[in-house]
Design brief:
Blueprint: E1 2-4, E2 9-13, E3 24-28, H1 31-40, E4 66-69, E5 77-85, E6 88-91
Antiparallel strand pairs: 1-2, 2-3, 4-5, 5-6
Length: 94
């Protein structure tokens, strides 16, 4: 997955098809550089699919809205995540 930000582009790597946290990430100055690097992993520039930007406060490497638990009350629990399901934030379980 590739995510473009104001300062550059993140390239996220996965080992599964279903939506999940990435295994690794790399940063590039431009989309063209990230696409070129993606070819090393077997992803041609024409294979990329656009996914929406994450909701504010959500993880960049997930398609479904996922955030660190405690985000709304500044009590972050960095090892606990929650997922938006039918308008409610529910604990994310493995």
């Amino acid at each position: 997955m590739m995510h473009e930000t104001d300062g550059g582009v993140y390239l996220f790597g996965y080992n599964k098809i279903e939506d999940a946290s990435c295994l690794w990430d790399e940063w590039y100055d431009s989309v063209a550089e990230a696409e070129s690097a993606g070819e090393e992993y077997g992803v041609a520039p024409t294979d990329w699919q656009v996914v929406p930007d994450p909701l504010e406060g959500c993880q960049q490497d997930w398609i479904t809205p996922v955030r660190v638990k405690g985000h709304t009350d500044s009590q972050l629990q960095k090892s606990s995540f929650e997922k938006l399901v039918d308008g409610q934030w529910l604990p994310l379980t493995s």
